[in-house]
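Q: Got a minute? One more chain.
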Amino acid sequence: MMFRFRRRRTAGSWTSGGSTRVGRVDLVGGGPGPADLMTLRAHRLLAEADVVVADRLGPADEVRAQLGPDVLVIDVGKRPGHHPVPQAQINALLVEHARAGRRVVRLKGGDPFVLGRGGEEVLACEAAGIPVSVTPGVSSAISVPQAAGIPVTHRGVASALHVVNGQGPFTESTLASLSDDSVTTVVLMGVAALPRLAAAALQHGVSADRPVAVVENGHTPQQRTVRSTLGAIVADAEEAAVINPAVIVIGDVARAGLLLPTTSQFAESSA
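A: Always. Here it is, folded:
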């Protein structure tokens, strides 16, 4: 499905007291990639935007192609080990353009409040007296496993979900979740940290047979899934040349055959 962002204006978008243009910032969750997985509100806000400050992941490229020529698009995407626009500068950009009377959409991959630093951007706007709102998006922590036929919870298998930032330290609560058969652990931004995570979990006493799935490029034509176990995933991921973006799922929901694949959407590769 192709969406067209038709330019819209409302009186409240442009004036206050009849004369002064009032800007604002809307943090919009773009979901895992396809634009048709965004909410209707997200599409409306993009149609009203003067400026779009876009992440690398999510629907940035598809959205950019549908925006009008008068919309300023600012790319602030980050890649592993390469952050050309630091978070403080992103915050400043939002405030600067809103103070100039513009409607600013901060388009973020996934959901703004799930390891997306959206809270920091809200605080920066509030500190500057800028009106700000947050529109939720579908988090890759749920949607990318789903695209591979992996439910993050499943009756009789897993009843809780633990989401981890793979770039940070692995806490006792994370290690405890890995040891609990009723918990699914999902690691975002964790490909480089996979050897460290596996070593810490095994040292903590987590079974080497605990199922692991790595879903690469979820919701894109390049999607693939590598299934393994905690004891073998490092070697298997290396052999398969797994790269970012990828979501790591650890727990019994990741075992092959839990759900019957019903469409080619669930195509997998194995190392």
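A: The longest strand covers residues 24-29.
Q: Perfect, thanks.
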